[in-house]
Design brief:
single chain, mainly alpha, elongated
Length: about 100
Amino acid sequence: MSEPTRRDRLRPLELVGLSAGGALFVGLIVLLGTRRIEVAAIFFGVAFIVALVVLAMLLIAAAPVHQDQESGPDGGPAPESGSAGSVAPDLPRGH
């Protein structure tokens, strides 16, 4: 197996940095609005965790599909020609 690229190694740090930046923004807004550091710290922590989970889920959802498997028009596996699922003969499609 090949060694991961530098981009692949830094991706977790990128997610943590983006989450921390968003959480810092939320914490500062709450601090300026309430002038209570305890409340700002709580909002910072909650915003950090929420941002980290949301970004991780988006990264999983946007993960590239493996190219070694063919996919059909609906995203599932491509049917084999002449299988029980195909009724029509394999004719060229188009106009």
